[in-house]
Amino acid sequence: MRRLPLALLLACDPAPSLPEPEPLPAPAPTPPAPGPADEDPPPPDPPPVPRDRPRAPPEGFVDLRIALPTACFTAGYAAADNFTGAPLPGYAAPGAWMLADAAAALGRVQDSLATAGLVLLIFDAYRPRRASEAMVAWAERTGQRELVEDGYIARRSGHNHGHTIDLGLARRGECGPSGWLDMGTPWDTLDERSHTANATGAARENRTTLLRAMRAAGFRDYTLEWWHFGYPLTGTRARDVPYGAREPDETP
């Protein structure tokens, strides 16, 4: 019998089968990164302030929206867009009242601006006493008592009497924000930038225009706030009549 070479025998034998590799174990799941779900949930939003119909002004007061039909008005403290972040008590309806003599003087200011194509932009006028108290409470609650001590928030305000007003200037017929004259800061910016003298360029010119017009009609300015003017009257008292018809009435 003829023998085959060893090399030829090895070439003819099938290669032994190898066991299939075991599958790799699945990777362990990555633990979720800590995020908002692991933190305390934020407090819920406060309930919306119910809207109300406006009430008529008390005796001796004038509704400026009627007395000055060509002036511009903002929602002021009836909206959340103010330094406290919420509408204030007493402002369930927007409004702007002043005592009759102060309103008459304001009408003279409006007339004097007509030749320049300007009108008054009114932010706030009479302010219910409860609103001033809410401002002070907000400052204390948020750790900003210095705003009261530095004269930006008043415990007793001329606004409560109805002879003080916050206002700026706008181009006649343009009551939207694009028509407002640049005053250097928004209304109710409670820091040194709002001091009447702390402005340059167009903002300084506009503050000066407002200041001169208001002084000429007998108003007194407040140097810490370019928008704040009071009309000197005697025998007035702080009031707490709200603008909203369904808000609690003034108590003695």
Descriptive keywords:
252 residues, alpha+beta, disordered N terminus, single chain, Muramoyl-pentapeptide Carboxypeptidase, domain 2
Q: Mind explaining what this structure looks like?
A:
The structure is a single chain. With 252 residues, this protein is of the alpha+beta class. The protein has a domain of 170 residues: Muramoyl-pentapeptide Carboxypeptidase, domain 2. The chain is built from seven helices and seven strands; from the N terminus they run H-E-H-E-E-H-E-H-H-H-E-H-E-E. The strands form two sheets. It has a five-stranded mixed beta sheet. A two-stranded antiparallel sheet has the order 1-3. Strand 6 and strand 7 form a beta hairpin. The radius of gyration is 35 Å and the shape is globular.
Q: What is the residue-mean pLDDT, rounded to a whole number?
A: 87
Strand content: 5-15%
Order of helices and strands: HEHEEHEHHHEHEE
Low-confidence stretches: 1-19
CATH topology of the domain at 61-230: Muramoyl-pentapeptide Carboxypeptidase, domain 2
Strand order of the largest sheet: 2-4-5-7-6
Helicity, as a percent range: 10-25%
CATH architecture of the domain at 61-230: 2-Layer Sandwich
Number of strands: 7
Number of helices: 7
**Ends distance:** 135 Å
Overall 3D geometry? globular
Please state the structural category.
alpha+beta
Question: What is the element layout, followed by pairings?
Answer:
Elements: H1 6-12, E1 61-63, H2 64-67, E2 72-73, E3 97-99, H3 100-113, E4 118-124, H4 129-141, H5 146-149, H6 158-161, E5 164-171, H7 201-216, E6 220-222, E7 225-230
Parallel strand pairs: 2-4
Antiparallel strand pairs: 1-3, 4-5, 5-7, 6-7
